[in-house]
Design goal:
By secondary structure, the protein is α/β, with parallel strands linked by helices. It has helices at 13-23, 38-42, 60-68, 86-91, 105-108, 116-119, 122-130, and strands at residues 2-7, 30-36, 51-54, 76-79, 96-99, 112-114. It has seven helices and six strands, in the order βαβαβαβαβαβαα. A six-stranded parallel beta sheet has the order 3-2-1-4-5-6, sandwiched between helices. The longest helix is centred in the first third of the chain and has 11 residues, at 13-23.
């Protein structure tokens, strides 16, 4: 199963929309966990199965996502603009995709980094297919 962790506080809509579009086209099961300020959560339409974790305060969304994370060998997509998940990304036993505008070096270690605002959604689709996730044609 594909796991997706989204920090809604740290990503612009033009980076988030392509990810949500691709998630809507998956044939395989996906777990989506989204955390952030209520205003950030209200600013997007999330997949039906998404678990929303509203948070208030500095770093609270990051902590909620870190607590929700479960290590396994399944593919992991981290949608975050900051480096707070560097350790998680580098230690995840399966493949990791980071969706970010300017991911820190810690997030680049052992992960594929894509910026859909400049690259579009094709690299996301290619990565998902490469790790065995099926998309509807």
């Amino acid at each position: 199963m594909l796991h997706v962790l989204i920090d809604a506080d740290n990503l612009s809509p033009r980076r988030l929309r392509p990810v949500l579009t691709v998630l809507a086209e998956l044939d395989d099961p996906v777990e989506v966990i989204v955390s952030g300020r209520q205003s950030a959560l209200d600013g997007s339409t999330w997949p039906e199965q998404a678990r929303l974790l509203p948070q208030q305060g500095w770093q609270r969304a990051d902590l909620a996502l870190a607590e929700a994370y479960r290590p396994d060998t399944d593919p992991l997509v981290l949608v975050s603009g900051d480096g707070d998940f560097g350790l998680l990304a580098s230690r995840h036993p399966g493949p990791v995709l980071v969706v970010s505008s300017a991911a820190s070096g810690r997030l680049r270690d052992g992960a594929t980094v894509i910026d859909p605002a400049t690259e579009g959604d094709r690299p996301i689709r290619a990565w998902l297919r490469a790790v065995g996730v099926r998309l509807r044609d």
